[in-house]
Amino acid sequence: MTDTHGVHRSEDDTAGAVRPPRPSGGSVHPRRDRREQTRTALLTAAERLWAERGIHGASLDDIAAAAGLTKGAVYSNFAGKTDLLLALMERFTTDRNIDVCDELRAAEEDIDHTARSSPRHDTDDHARRLALLLVEFWLYGMRDYAAGWRIADWYAERRAQMASELETTGGIPPDERATLALALDFGLAFQHLLDPARVPADLYSTGKNLMLGRKQD
Predict the structure, then answer these.
(1) How far apart are alpha carbons 131 and 61 in whole angstroms?
(2) Which residue, 59, 116, 136, 137, is the most exposed by fewest CB within 10 angstroms?
(3) Geometric angle at alpha carbon 17, from 14 and 5, rounded to 5°
(4) What does the pLDDT profile of the chain (217 residues) look like in tens digits?
(5) What does DSSP assign to residue 116?
(6) What is the Cα gyration radius of the chain?
(7) What is the SS3 assignment for 93-154?
(8) How many Cβ atoms are within 10 Å of 200's Cβ, its own excluded?
């Protein structure tokens, strides 16, 4: 082969040419890391604002500002509000099991007899925020048909995940018991948050064991 100056060079010469050194140390994909950090910041801001104000009470501009970003950053990572909402729901599924009542009960056990909160008392705030978000997700899906079926699919995946660990008991198949258990968790949590004295969070364990066919301790 011939270079730009007309000098013939063999393929071996070309192969042996000096190439710029590859960057060493640090992240191999800094752009991907920055994108992931941006997504995390937006999801965290959305979780807090939507729990505090409702999904219709906090715009994408509000979420971007709370994350210290611009609205353009939102649309660079999510197609819109529904896409951001579904990503947040997916993060719940990936990061933790959504047993709201279990979290509420754990928070109550962390409060000592002097009624002062332990260092982990923020669990209670987290459980309340999670319960509020689940209500918001449901309302959003009921009012927006396009989002509704996608949110319904999310619930279906949760039920299927739970049912995969169950067997038929008392003539009730796993998928039906999973549906009842999920309804019990959300419904009891909502009642407890409004009326903790008359609807104790530990009632969830009793109900869940009955629904899932587990033996009582």
Answers:
(1) 24
(2) 116
(3) 60
(4) 554 455 454 444 444 444 445 544 554 577 788 899 999 999 999 999 999 999 999 999 999 999 999 999 999 999 999 999 999 988 877 665 566 666 666 666 654 444 444 433 444 577 788 888 888 999 999 999 889 999 999 889 888 988 888 887 778 898 998 898 888 888 888 888 888 889 887 787 777 777 666 665 5
(5) P
(6) 25
(7) HHHCCCCHHHHHHHHHHCCCCCCCCCCCCHHHHHHHHHHHHHHHHHHHHHHCHHHHHHHHHH
(8) 16
Measured distance CA(182)–CA(215) in Å, rounded: 18
Joined together, the tokens standing for residue 135 give 């209500």
Q: Where are the alpha helices (DSSP H) in 78-121?
A: 81-95, 100-109
Q: Which amino acid is at 40?
A: T
Token look-up 């950090």 returns 37
Residue type, 198: R
Exposed / middle / buried, residue 189 (Cβ in 10 Å: 0-12, 13-18, 19+): buried
Provide the Cα torsion 25, 28, 31, 37; round to 10°.
-80
CA angle 61-59-30, nearest 5°? 50
DSSP 21: P
